[in-house]
Write a structure and sequence with these properties.
Blueprint: H1 3-16, H2 20-28, H3 33-41, H4 46-80, H5 99-111, E1 117-119, E2 124-126, H6 127-130, E3 150-156, E4 160-164, H7 171-176, E5 183-192, E6 203-213, H8 218-233, E7 239-246, E8 249-258, E9 274-283, H9 285-290, E10 299-306, H10 307-312, H11 330-333
Parallel strand pairs: 1-5
Antiparallel strand pairs: 2-4, 3-4, 5-6, 6-10, 7-8, 8-9, 9-10
The chain binds phenylalanine.
The site of phenylalanine (PHE) has 12 residues, from strand 9 and strand 10.
Length: 336
């Protein structure tokens, strides 16, 4: 624990920063240096805790005293100092777009030149569009994979219960039912699932591509995935598909992208040279039928995965926990 370092930095800040409140927040605030140090201390051994704990408390007291002294000194000074009307005012801090918004814009810009129609379907959806019309009848065990939030007391006799949209695939049949063909849809919306860990948060964004036309086959899907990999992640990146199972696509795949550190050779980070991106497949004929499209005439593919996760995998971002994105900690947000 570098108590001396915190102390030194504090003294420097005290000399160079005029706004005492800013210094107070930086050191004594809920997410400040001292709170951070105490948090770290939790993982130390008992003997280390006994030694460092009191030192940290002393430092906290010292900082409080010095700040108070400074505050008193200043108010005395203010009583006598003349008003300098020519002093410039305080500049408001300039913010920037949140990382998720930046990622959404980048993704949309990759698909726009290919003629994809950007849509945003409901955040609260009927069971019918989230599951049933996607070839997952009621009580089907495949539904369990989507840790769904159900909305109590809201249901429709034909469309079932209301849910927080668990995936953007719920936009597929809605788009088909518009009755316009061919389809090139990019549905980018907020979704919700009952999961929280370094890779999952209950409220997140997904994007979903859906292409339906005459003569669409897997090669079109493969080409589009590589196009996305190169334009979003950078040249040298490519994808591969692995067999998987979704009820609404047949065949179904999981898509991997070559690791940005070793470009597919295999390294300590990725092991196999590949990291998982998301799901995809050829639209199941039953789903086309639910969308009132004749599966003998039209075929299509779909793919979809998380916006935040995709952005985290972009080279250079080095974000190792998805929850950072929503912690609203300026020290994190300012880096992007
Ligand atoms: N909706 C699927 C998921 O959330 C991903 C997917 C989209 C799979 C489109 C196939 C086709 O996991």
């Amino acid at each position: 624990m570098e108590i001396e370092k915190i102390k030194k930095q504090f003294k420097k800040d005290l000399e160079s920063i005029k706004d005492i409140e800013k210094i107070r927040i930086r050191y004594l605030g809920k997410k400040g240096e001292i709170a951070w140090a105490f948090k770290q201390l939790k993982s130390f051994s008992l003997t280390a805790k006994k030694k460092i704990g009191p030192e940290l408390n002393n430092l906290k007291r010292e900082i409080e005293d010095l700040l108070e002294k400074r505050l008193k000194g200043r108010s005395n000074q203010q009583q006598f100092s003349p008003l300098y009307k020519s002093l410039p005012g305080k500049k408001p801090e300039i913010g920037h777009l949140h990382i998720t918004t930046q990622a959404i814009r980048e993704i949309v810009n990759v698909f726009k030149p290919l003629g994809f129609n950007r849509v945003r379907y409901n955040e609260v959806e009927w069971d019918y569009f989230a599951f049933e019309s996607l070839n997952m009848p009621k009580e089907h065990p495949a539904r369990d994979e989507w840790e769904t939030f159900f909305i109590q007391d809201l249901s429709n006799p034909k469309k079932g219960k209301a849910v927080i949209t668990p995936h953007t695939s719920s936009g597929q049949v809605r788009e088909m039912l518009k009755g316009e063909l061919p389809i090139r849809m990019l549905n980018l919306s907020r979704c919700g699932r009952r999961e929280i860990n370094i890779n999952h948060i209950p409220s997140f964004y997904q994007f979903e591509g859906l292409v339906i036309d005459k003569g669409i086959n897997i090669t079109h899907l493969r080409g589009l995935l590589d196009y996305f990999a190169q334009n979003f992640f950078g040249p040298g990146r490519k994808t591969r598909i692995r067999p998987f199972h979704f009820k609404f696509t047949e065949p179904s795949f999981e898509i991997d992208i070559n690791c940005d550190l070793c470009l597919g050779k295999g390294c300590r980070f990725c092991k196999s040279g590949w990291v998982e991106l998301g799901g995809a497949g050829m639209v199941h004929p039953n789903v086309l039928k639910f969308g009132k499209i004749d599966p003998c005439k039209y075929t299509g593919f779909a793919f979809g995965w998380g916006v935040e996760r995709t952005y985290m995998m972009k080279s250079g971002t080095k974000i190792n926990d998805i929850r950072h994105l929503f912690s609203n900690d300026f020290r994190f947000l300012e880096q992007f």
